[in-house]
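Let us work through a complete example step by step.
Step 1: write down the sequence.
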Amino acid sequence: MARKRKGLLLVVSGPAGVGKGTVNAMLMQRHPEIKMSVSVTTRAPRPGEIDGVHYFFRTKEEFDRMIEENAFLEYMHVFGMNYYGTPRSFVEAEREKGNHVILEIDVQGAMKVKEACPDAVMVFIAPPSLAILKSRLVGRGTETQESIDVRTATALNELKMLPQYDYMVINDVLEEAVGEMESILTSELLRTERNTTLIEKLTGGETI
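Step 2: predict the structure and record it as tokens.
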């Protein structure tokens, strides 16, 4: 009998430049059952962007209606211009299919999701050190010194939120970081509270 389980919601945070996007991309490449959460936004599509793939593009009126309907796990107003939100329906639909959903989000949004979805698996991807993180930002060649200083200071504040997360993954060697993410998936799927249906079948004499 197939072991059908509800998929996991992985809330992944980490400072700018830590490489969380790269870690998540490699994890999804290895595991097709892992999906990236698609956000809703009020901004206009950019050339090449597809509704439902890159974002769900909605008007401000539609976004407001979704807020009233409690349709978001979290949402935010960015730079006083556009709204972005994590649609509850997309996440829940994918999880019911047995797929795992990654929500790559900042620490403030992550805390809102943790409150809205208590069974979310909270993962913080951290650098080996702030000095190494700063060198990575410099290596990008796209940041001003002022921007690098701001990002480094922000990273320190984000790191102080680590105790609010379930797991910490150090992204020093990419392959090892991805392997640790896979270990988190395995561990969480084996938790007894995520296998109540299977336990009931087993204790009822069925084969699982």
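Step 3: interpret the result. Residues 174-189 form the longest helix (16 residues).
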